[in-house]
Amino acid sequence: MAFKIKINLNLHLLLLFLITAVCLALASKDPELKQCKHQCKVQRQFDEQQKRDCERSCDEYYKMKKEKGRNYESEEEEEEEEEVENPYVFDDEHFVGQIETGEGKIKVLQKFTQRSHLLRGIENFRVSIVEANPSTFVVPTHFDAEIILFVAQGRGTITVIKEKRGSFELKCGDVFRIPSGAPFYFINKDEHRKLKIVKLLQSTSVPGHFQTFQPAGGENPESFYTAFSWDLLEAAFKIPRDKLERFFKQQKPGTIIKASREQIRSLSRHEEIIPKIWPFSEGETERPFNLLKQHPCQSNKFGRLFEAYPDEFSQLRDLGVAIAFANITEGSMVAPHYNSKSMKIAVVLDGQGGFQMACPHLSSSSRRSGRWSEREEERKGERTYQKIRGRLSRGVVFVVPAGHPFSVFASPNHSLQIVCFEVNAYGNTKYFLAGKENIVNKMESIARELGFNTPGREVERMFKQQEEEFFFPGPNQQEHEWADA
Amino acid sequence: MAFKIKINLNLHLLLLFLITAVCLALASKDPELKQCKHQCKVQRQFDEQQKRDCERSCDEYYKMKKEKGRNYESEEEEEEEEEVENPYVFDDEHFVGQIETGEGKIKVLQKFTQRSHLLRGIENFRVSIVEANPSTFVVPTHFDAEIILFVAQGRGTITVIKEKRGSFELKCGDVFRIPSGAPFYFINKDEHRKLKIVKLLQSTSVPGHFQTFQPAGGENPESFYTAFSWDLLEAAFKIPRDKLERFFKQQKPGTIIKASREQIRSLSRHEEIIPKIWPFSEGETERPFNLLKQHPCQSNKFGRLFEAYPDEFSQLRDLGVAIAFANITEGSMVAPHYNSKSMKIAVVLDGQGGFQMACPHLSSSSRRSGRWSEREEERKGERTYQKIRGRLSRGVVFVVPAGHPFSVFASPNHSLQIVCFEVNAYGNTKYFLAGKENIVNKMESIARELGFNTPGREVERMFKQQEEEFFFPGPNQQEHEWADA
Amino acid sequence: MAFKIKINLNLHLLLLFLITAVCLALASKDPELKQCKHQCKVQRQFDEQQKRDCERSCDEYYKMKKEKGRNYESEEEEEEEEEVENPYVFDDEHFVGQIETGEGKIKVLQKFTQRSHLLRGIENFRVSIVEANPSTFVVPTHFDAEIILFVAQGRGTITVIKEKRGSFELKCGDVFRIPSGAPFYFINKDEHRKLKIVKLLQSTSVPGHFQTFQPAGGENPESFYTAFSWDLLEAAFKIPRDKLERFFKQQKPGTIIKASREQIRSLSRHEEIIPKIWPFSEGETERPFNLLKQHPCQSNKFGRLFEAYPDEFSQLRDLGVAIAFANITEGSMVAPHYNSKSMKIAVVLDGQGGFQMACPHLSSSSRRSGRWSEREEERKGERTYQKIRGRLSRGVVFVVPAGHPFSVFASPNHSLQIVCFEVNAYGNTKYFLAGKENIVNKMESIARELGFNTPGREVERMFKQQEEEFFFPGPNQQEHEWADA
């Protein structure tokens, strides 16, 4: 007996420490493995053998945890996985939703905060991409989210139900706003090309989450009517149960379905009969506007930029979101610059290229926890920048927080098309870091001299050499030009 | 020695795994027991006996955890408990605050996010119900919260202190706004009936929490003055300590206290002397308005609906909250419908009935974690709806998120009275799913045909049969009518 | 073998319980040690010896946890540590950022929510204090945060870059707004005194966090340009790599650097050439205004209070922040009072004194978790107040939530200067709890009588004795006066 207890005690300590190691690791968001082992070392009461055992256990514990992490939805897990690399660039693997019907597909980007705490500022926004095959109908649905949609390719007609019904033609470059809860359906009326739509959604009921609701449905997707009890539906519709069941169960439409030429034609025809002024409450759906028909705010032979700001377009007003379209000529680049207030959510529509961003250096701990570890960083007064890099190709999404200097360039042989949603766009200013109008040129020369600790003339030579604005020749094609410098 | 270590090692593994099981279970919000056991099975290093031990431990661990869970405030616990069922309906057990004095009672509904992450959208709002006995005085108090109160029963007089004092009569159906921090007190001047008040509170200082502050008090509730040191109070009041102590300690008023007929009369009299225009900053307290005296926005022999929107009533403007009162005739129902933007917080005042809502299906994991498990759900593109059900009776509170189709019905022999606070009400639209004006009738017939995959005429027959609007005969009383269908 | 298993089983239980104890302790934020031990006691399967072992382990576990807590950034840890005492007062140890250059220093206060959940309401705000030595230049930087700065001491010139450049003189008492993302630099043009600036920051990209970005830099701080690849910079600047490297690597300016008399003079001169009307978008930077030159809203021989509200000053409008400066005469005090809506973030500039606040009593559990434990508190209907106390001296920061009664007093021989940022200031009202205009005097005498359960005349005598307003003689100097009372 006394003997057993002795062992207990011994194991007790061991056990005790391990629990501490593990739970502490869970509590503080630090590199667990490192910490777990660290604690093995500092246990005075352990002999060498025990310390080795202990460290081994850490390894096993952590290995196991990671495996499990995958099988079970756990935000913490996610973050730790992802953030070791760069949480600002998303590709296919980060699209969680995926509805594949024979006639098209719908992808939803993961929740931003599932990727990193650093994206908390846009937690409430989601990105979704819809592709509908030629001659198809996307069935009536409503969302518990505000929607801004951008037509990336194709021709369609969309119908939205409010007090009245309104139908609108959709062309490439169109921006259209669907207010939260409004039922809508649309067609791809092109007989040959897909209709591609990029959506920005802002949740209405659960922050960062949205849900879709269909009146019609079968097995899956279901009709939301079937969530009510049959006797309630009998009363609501004044239709006997058997009829209701037949009606709501038989159908298996799916979300995107084939439509006949006649159906397409008749659904398209409606767009002529749109009322000139259409009664919608302020800041909500109105006829679409075409972004590409706006006067480009930047344009030269290296690229063009189109922008629509919320103060000009009532569709964007209440969300405070701007939308922009950039077309970067092959081998060209966008000037390094930053936005003073807005967070950019960019979706690559086509082409190839690269993305670079300066991000104040994250300590190992904060890189995992997604927090700016003041303790470790600031105290030392350290200020360095993490080099964020991303390869850009169709379907890639990248995020640029306010204040963060970044640049984008097209590959030498493909131009690059990007649509950008700028969240928190009111009062936003673009600050250029190179080319005409760059911020350094705007400083007093003594300030430049002091700041750069270099004769003013020399600083000037550095920042005045590039005379283009916003779009420049890109990294891979100006060897010859340097000679002149 | 070597021997001890051997055992250690052995136990080490066992221990190691168990910690993992348990802590992992804590980390990922998954069905812990299931997971814990699952991990027992997958331990290669265990023999059968060990695996069995291990599973048994899981059982014990979990049992223990649940017991403890009850004794110790733990949001996690709460959620897991609740969300397995339906987090949208609250009854007595979900009222946490409970002040019972001889002269009345005050109940506070638990924090919404304590119930479920799905209610994060209304985290900052709280519900409280006050019942004051006949001829009572509710002592002066201020809250760190904005308050909208609705008089559900009885007659009173309320006094609010701002730059000046203002007194107002309160009748059944009155809606009154008390700005954050304003001290107020009120009386139930009826000598026979209780005064019943339903409050919606929006926190000012700590999101989702509010606190009450009383100048007068004794043991409990205390006077907030007693939180200051006596020497400070001596200086502040220019009154010696002994007098102060006697003054602030002796009294034991409680929160709701009996008042004499004379006191009631004199406190009531004041309402005549209210200034016509009363100086209050925009969007804040003004004289009450009576919801039931508004023109009903829906009314037929099956029920009546009264609504006050924030754009019409300055008291509601800055909170963006609408308030509605529904009286559903016995045996009648409300049309299945949804709100496009607002989240409904409904309090049943009287009667009996039922509540049904369609909620996009939550996976087992998300049902617990309160998160919409994108991983599991979306990837499969699954879209089904959870059937939310609730029995309604006096004091029950239910929540309806934006976009969620729902319906309410009264029992065959009791009419049902409900007061609703609609959070985020600006630009909200009600969409009807049955009866006149239902969304399906507003669609083009080809869209209906494609959507429901049924001949247009047939769809029309389904959705045109019910000719009433909003209030219908309910589930249990129209056998005969179906014949006609 | 059977033997080993027997032991396993035994230890199993022990282990099992301990894990439960520990992890439970982590899950529910309750006094862990207490809980851990509590669970030792309730283990039926343990004999006395085991129970004792078990409790000892709890002690060790907790000790260890605390030690570790210090080494590893862990919000949980922080809170538990801090909140046992008072989370509303911050001194030197709570400043995390610390940049010490030879020529000055920059301190950043820890994130409020790192201190306590109770401060969630101001999570998005941060406080920073800058001290620049005489004749120094603070190099060009931009923040991903909105900044309100208050000049606590000295004379400088600040330059902000927007579409154009604007330079402004800074004197003691000046309030200046720097919009998020705008690059700025400033000088201390005094040859003898330090320039002291207090900043309130509101994050733009990551809630509760801000980052700084410098175009110029060397090893540390780095230039953000160096986060881009050299080939990209070559293209952007049309400058060959070797020149770029030399330019961006050579410099080691630091953040605050010495400037020559000539440089200072020339940078100061610019202030004359400021455009009369300067093109800035609404609610953003404009010329500074001087708080101390406003008409004091309270003033007597015991102190003076200056306030600037967001509705009068466009610089404060979009942030909804008011700024106030209080100068309390030695031995005097501020009347106990509270703000109806705003949360006060106060920074002590100079002097010595004390702070007292009434905080609705937090249960032991909530004191740790920073949550208002409804379960335990409300159910009992208990309402008492925690006595919050703080010693005030230069550099101390304290927070006063809306609705919380508080008072501040100066020591008998030092006057006290405090600058206050009032977050959520729109429609805020000050309610006085003593002195002229106190809320009790505004109540009907019957209400006072009922509330204080004391004859009205007596209540009146208590609350009418102090005739001063807002500033009173303080705790330590009126023995004689009491005689008169």
Automatic annotation (TrEMBL), chains A, B, C:
InterPro entries, sorted: Cupin_1, RmlC-like_jellyroll, RmlC_Cupin_sf, Seed_Storage-Functional
Segments forming domain Cupin type-1: 93-245, 289-460
Keyword Signal: yes
Extent of the signal sequence: 1-27
Keywords: Signal
Organism domain of life: Eukaryota
Residue ranges with Basic and acidic residues bias: 371-383
Signal in keyword set: yes
Annotated region (Disordered), positions in chain: 360-383
Protein name (database record): Cupin type-1 domain-containing protein
Taxonomic placement: Eukaryota, Viridiplantae, Streptophyta, Embryophyta, Tracheophyta
